[in-house]
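Form 12-C: Joint structure prediction
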Amino acid sequence: MKSSFLCKIIQMGENKKEKTMYRFYNLVFLLYFFPFLLVFLLVEIFFKTSFAKLLLFSLVSFSLLLVSYFILRKMIKEWFIEPFISVYLPVKEFLKTKSLIKPIEPKGPIEVREILSDFNRLMLELQAYRAFRIDKIVDENNKAKALADIVPDAAILADENNRVIYFNERAKILLNIRRDKEQRIPDCVGEEHFYKVLSEIFEAKKKSDFFELDLDMGDKGKKSYLLISKLFNISSLKKNGIAVVIRDITKDKEFEAAKDDFFHMITHDMRAPISTIEGYCSMIERKIQKTEEIEKYFQKVFYSSKKLKGMVEDTLNYRKLKEKKAILNLAINQACEIIEKVVDEHMPAASARNIKISVECEKNTAIFVDANLIERAISNLIGNAVKFTPSFGNIWLKFWQDDKYWFFSVKDDGPGITEDRKNMVFEKYISYDDNNNRGFGLGLALCKMVAEVHKGEISVKSNPGKGSEFFISISKNLSGDKNEKNTDN
Amino acid sequence: MKKILIIDDNEEFKEFIRDYFSSIGYDIVLCGNAKDGVSAAVREKPDLIFLDVMMPEKTGIEIIREFQEYEEIKKVPVIVLTGTYLESNMKEIFSIEPNCRAFLAKTVDISLLEKKVFELIGK
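Section 2 - Result
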């Protein structure tokens, strides 16, 4: 503003001192006319015109010049400079402070006035929008924070350099996050147990992962936590950050343990009575004269009692295996004999509904397994197959091997299993019957346990309407445990 | 007839074994405690002994060792039975004893028990 020549001419300055100075400049500028007037007069004298005419002419032209100068100056000032400045200053202020203190007074020619009032409207809208956006952002942030702080799980976000971006209230308490230390994980974690664990996780930089932690928290007792970590990205990060959620699952585990204890307690006491029933039935069978009908009745009694015994055994074994209290009773057994024994058990029930069971087994193949467990596993699979296969259906049993594993498979042409159920079918305490009712089912969970304990796997191939095939693989390379501990014989 | 002595404090189980094995042609003698057990063994001279692991006054291992002190009965085969959990070491401990021929759970298939008995002493 100061340096503009135009401003000096129209005497526009930022303060009184400047204005006075510019007035002075203007005066000086005007005085420059007199020498020119003198020169003009002299020229006229030399070219011999009447002095009076000359004087009049020069006075008039000088006055005209003076007047037009003032008019021009006023015009420029009022119509261009002032409107321009009145727009320029507020805009500059607005951009600096991001707010419009007061609207600009529209003045000057109509076009300028229109521009100014449009400008006012524009600035006001921009200001309102800005305020709204910021309020909205703050609101959203507060909403998220309110939720995050009420959630009982600890949550932390860290950037690609392990610097903490965010942690919720629970994380602060659980991990004892220290503000004095640099906000990097795991350095800022005050709780020693979590310090160790988080160091490992952040070191490994694993992708989405979750695992359980059992920590002895000293005076706080033994607690279990579920840790879930996941990579994430937001625009302010160059590379992926890590989000970690920690959930206290101590109660959940206690509950599950209580459930297991409960079942164990019940089933343990069932064993003796079942044996007694079986035993006395055997004795009755031997003593009486059997008709075909009575023979059939006995078959059903024995089948049921065996099934019941199997369920009890599975429950007890499952727990022993899970707690790793059972050491396998590994021995050399004939694969085909095991299969035949199990098939024989289920034959009556199968034939009753005209279900055909076919066996494909490499003869004279010895396998090194815990016979009792393998029998239970195969029995469960065949039992399920018989249960779910409709009358006149088929069940196929196969045994084969490759250089690393022995394989058993049980295939049926029953209704098959839907995709979503396939994932859950090996879970504990889940079983489905024809009417889609969930039942107490440990069978497949036990099969899974048996496979895993033999360093193998269980899997199922199935499609609705196309039957199912269950596969159990057993590793040939079981480090021979010399210890023997009976699973329930 | 072959004679079997049962030493067990569980009444139900004793009766069950007696009923079953007598129905298949064995002579059964029952005994409810450790002290009587040893004297019954000496007196009756059975061909086989069923011994319960957990007895009130003496443990099964003590009893089975006591059998070995008597000339008449130290050669008698003993089948050790347990109604509770099979402890990991128990089987080993009993298996060391020369007169212990089997270590089984009481809930094992009765036909299996029958087979074992037949293996050891015949009919």
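Section 3 - Comments
The radius of gyration of chain B is 13 Å. Chain B is about 40% helix and 20% strand.
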